[in-house]
Specification:
There is one protein chain. This protein has about 350 residues and is mostly helical. The protein has two domains: about 160 residues, A middle domain of Talin 1, CATH 1.20.1420; about 180 residues, I/LWEQ domain, CATH 1.20.1410. The chain is built from eleven helices and no strands.
Length: about 350
């Protein structure tokens, strides 16, 4: 039976590899299964992959291989790889939400890639087992199979603990990731908004990296301080959106949530571009305009969610304006757009 092992491993490798591109081909069922059921099936499948991966790697341990015991887990993993792809294809972005569908596909892709790589290592080890290899090579190969096994286990464990339970949760998770980009830009500004000269050896002319550490000019320092204070307000409002607007039970539709999420990356990019203008003020006004445009789109996406809440009374009937309400967000975004114009004024002062 040991002669059947290479064929079983090769089939596992091929199936896992073929299942990866298949993940991108959504194949919604009619009627679509409820999201909790699909999510439960996904977790059950990767739990079985974890268990059979363990059995396969124990059976094909180079130190004491038991090839006949590897056939069953190899065949099970082959079937599970195909079933996992089918399960993921059933997550319909239009019905279940694009954020949760993308999250599941990304997790499945990583797991299938790791499973493919593990099958490849086991196949190579089994094929070479009959040939006399130096102990050094055998030890190295054994370490690789352990690494590949651990990679499958680690990915599945993280998926089991971190898989979003709803599209809303998936949106909030991605929202935070884009917010981290804004936070990183603010950290950079905190450093730029000082007149301390930092010399870590990167300004050595002999290294010729194309930049040199030098003391900031008064204009650069003024721009950095102004941007820091302004972008902190932007970051604060960005962070309040999931807290105030995306609280369960949210009535926001999946298309509205997707539009909101789509508006986040352009804003994060625009923030990063603004920060980069501290040392390179070229086209500062153009970058400012792109930022204002991104901020406008984000504000529109927020307002669109409120527009779906038909049972929410107009705030004009309630005084004062409630924090986190439709009018409150409109005021905040309007003020930020107006304040962004000061970036252009700074540019004029720099060129005067």
């Amino acid at each position: 039976m040991s002669s059947d092992v290479p064929a079983a491993l090769a089939l596992l490798l091929q199936t896992a590899a073929a299942s990866i591109p298949a993940l991108a081909l959504a194949s919604p069922q009619d009627p679509p299964p409820p999201l909790p059921a699909l999510r439960k099936d996904f977790l059950a499948l990767i739990t079985l992959i974890y268990a059979h991966t363990t059995k396969l790697s124990i059976a094909l341990n180079p130190a004491s291989p038991a090839p006949s015991a590897a056939l069953s887990p190899a065949k099970e993993l082959t079937a599970l790889a195909g079933t996992l792809a089918s399960n993921v294809a059933s997550f319909d972005p239009q019905v279940h939400g694009a954020a949760i569908a993308d999250e599941v596909r990304a997790l499945a892709k990583d797991i299938l890639c790791a499973l493919r790589d593990l099958a490849s290592v086991h196949l190579s080890l089994h094929t070479a087992a009959a040939a006399p290899l130096p102990p050094r090579v055998k030890d190295g190969a054994g370490e690789e199979y352990l690494v590949r096994t651990g990679a499958v286990h680690d990915l599945i464990t993280r998926a089991q603990k971190g898989l979003s339970d709803s599209n809303l949760t998936a949106v909030k998770k991605k929202w935070k990731e884009h917010g981290d980009t804004i936070a990183d830009a603010l950290l950079e500004l905190d450093e730029d908004a000082t007149d301390e000269e930092e010399d870590e050896g990167w300004d050595d002319p002999e290294l010729d990296f194309g930049f040199h550490a030098k003391k900031k000019t008064p204009e650069q320092l003024k721009l950095a301080v102004s941007l820091r204070d302004f972008l902190k307000r932007v970051s604060t409002l960005y962070a309040l959106i999931p807290t105030l607007l995306l609280r369960p039970p949210s009535t926001a539709s999946n298309p509205a949530l997707e539009a909101l999420l789509v508006s986040a990356p352009p804003l994060a990019t625009a923030v990063d571009e603004l920060v980069s203008r501290v040392y390179d003020p070229e086209d500062l006004a153009g970058v400012r305009d792109e930022f204002v445009s991104a901020l406008q789109k984000l504000g529109d996406a927020v307002d669109a969610i409120f527009a779906e809440m038909k049972d929410v009374p107009s705030e004009s009937e309630t005084k004062p304006v409630k924090k986190g309400g439709r009018e409150w967000f409109a005021v905040q975004f309007g003020a930020l757009r107006e304040n962004a114009a000061q970036v252009g004024n700074l540019e004029e002062s720099n060129t005067s």
